[in-house]
Structure formats: structure tokens, C-alpha cells
Amino acid sequence: MTPQIRPVRKDDLSQSFTLIRNGFPAVAVTEEHMRWRFDHPRPDVDDTRLVAVDGDRVVGHMISRVHTDEDGTRKGNSFYGALAEEHRDTDLAARLLEASEANLTEKGAAFLRTSAAQEGVQAAGEHFREAILARGYELVESHHVLGMELSRLPDPPQAPAGAELRRWSEFADDPRPLYEIDKAADADEPGETAEDFLSYEFWLDSVWHNPMFDLELSLALLLDGAPVAISCYSSDHDSRMESAMTGTLREYRNRGLAGYTKHMALHRARERGFTHAYTGNHETNKPMLAINNRIGYSLVGTENTYVKRL
Length: 310
Ligand SMILES: CC(C)(COP(=O)(O)OP(=O)(O)OC[C@H]1O[C@@H](n2cnc3c(N)ncnc32)[C@H](O)[C@@H]1OP(=O)(O)O)[C@@H](O)C(=O)NCCC(=O)NCCS
Known about the structure:
Elements: E1 4-7, H1 13-23, H2 31-39, E2 46-54, E3 57-68, E4 74-83, H3 92-106, E5 111-117, H4 125-134, E6 138-149, E7 164-167, H5 176-188, H6 200-208, E8 219-223, E9 226-235, E10 240-248, H7 257-271, E11 276-282, H8 286-295, E12 298-309
Parallel strand pairs: 4-5, 10-11
Antiparallel strand pairs: 1-2, 2-3, 3-4, 5-12, 6-11, 6-12, 7-8, 8-9, 9-10
């Protein structure tokens, strides 16, 4: 039977989670997070989670997101493409992408973006890549997705003079200084961004209160009592963790602060039983790639971003 494509329902979430978990080995997704997100849609974007259903089985998945820029321009993004193994050699990737595009253009998006990655990062990535190219998208940039087994973590470097580490959970009374570093780092990260950085209110909702965000693993580095660098993570609260951001305020860079903070976050994660860490870097982000290289990450695969203007 030809799978039917439609918006996800709450009772599809368990199967959708399994599909994503198998389809994106380097992503620390949890079913709890998917249920939370279903009940708390992001307020700053218009998301439709599409599933392809074959009888009562969820066999395909893609998110369609519309983001409205400050000047009112509507931009669409089709991502998180996953397929059940037996549907990878069918036209399902192309049909999911087509359905997502229809959803986005109906909502007024005239600028479309999407992505596909190598197999180690996205199991059905090659099928989505073919569909993306066939629909006239152009490649604009690539990111490296890196991974490591924490059992191979080298000894931590010496603490930089005056450095003090704090868990993010210790900022529960006022997380704003962490938001400011996250925002400043995001502005300096190379590469195109799909969306403007979140307002503080949306950041509290999407990051701080997100059940997948790990406030115990995430660290801030303080100098003279003030946070100047962060290394933060989402995790499955069990074995896998994924970098959300590592950043140092501009005036404190190249003193080993980010490298030390990230190194220590991974050591503490290993002590808590985590076994695998993943991260993604724009291919031109030399300082971050240098840090990750020193820590011992290796390439899992490349993720390409494609765009199309209508
Ligand atoms: C990337 C970033 C976090 C690094 O912070 P930092 O505190 O300066 O980092 P460190 O001093 O610990 O380490 C920087 C490393 O980059 C290396 N480096 C710096 N500039 C470099 C360049 N142009 N080419 C190659 N390596 C470079 C340094 O030699 C050092 O590596 P080493 O420890 O092997 O010597 C910081 O530049 C930043 O906040 N950037 C914007 C946010 C960002 O891109 N974050 C990563 C998102 S994936």
C-alpha cells in the first residue's frame, strides 16, 4: 500500500520516536521530549510534523517549519527526514519533501531550505539528497557531525588561571548571563542560520525548560565571578549527549577557556555514565574544530544544507 502522509497525531509519537532514533544515530532525542514538544509547540515558529503511515505503522517522518524574519519574510525549512528501512528504495523521500514544500508554500514561504546527511548521521540521507536535488535545490553549506566514545577521552587540561566552573543548574535563579553568552556565540558562529536567535522569553521556553536540555551536564566558566564561556548539552539523560553550543565571549577567546570547559563537561558526563558524545561544526569553524580534534572527536559524516527560492 502507498503510505499516506499527514500531520502527526499524539498516538504516532512512540513510533515516530523509534524512527528518528534509528534514523539519526548522532542525535540525542527522547520520546519524553517529543511528547513535551507536541504539547508545547515552539511559539516563535510554525511547525508541522509530517508522518507517512502505512496501515498503522509510521514509516516516514519530516518536520516542516516556517520562520518569519523581523522584516516579515517567511522562510521554510524541511528537516528531520527519516524512513523505515523497507521504504528507503521507494519514492517516499520525494513524497515527504513534496508534502513539506506544499505545507510551507501554503503558509507563504518563498525561500525554502532543507538538509541531507551521510548515512552515519542520517540513515536515509542519500534518498533525501536525491529527492532534494531532483526538486531544484542548490547546495549552500556543509557541517561536520563529529562523535566520540567517552571511554577514549584524554586527561583534562590544566585549569586556566582563575577559572571556576559552575553547572547550569546553579543559575536557576537567573539564567540570563548564560543566555547572553549563548546569543553572542551564536552571532559569531560561521555559516548561515535558518532563524534569528531566540528572545530571552523563548529561550527560557525552548532551551532552559526543554526536558532534553541537560542543566547538570552543561557548564559555565567564570572569571572573577562572572561567566565568560559556556559549553552546553542536550542529552537522553542516559548514555548519549549532544552539544548545543560552546562559546566564549569575544574578548576572552584564545586563552583555552572553551576547550577546558568542554573537556571538563565531557569528563563529568563520563563520570555520570554517559558513553557517547556528538557535536556539529560548520566546516570553516577552525577554532571549534581544533578544540574537538584535541578532545578526540572524529567525523561521523557531513550534513549538507540546500536552498531554493520560489
Ligand atoms: C569557538 C570558540 C568557542 C573557541 O573559544 P576559545 O575560548 O577561544 O577556545 P580555546 O582558546 O579553548 O581554543 C581555541 C582553539 O582554536 C585554535 N584556533 C584559534 N584560531 C584558529 C584558526 N584561525 N585556525 C585554526 N585554529 C585556531 C587555537 O589554537 C585553540 O586550539 P588549541 O587548543 O589546539 O591550541 C569561540 O571562538 C567562539 O565562541 N566562537 C563563536 C561560537 C562558535 O562558533 N561556537 C562553536 C559552535 S559549533
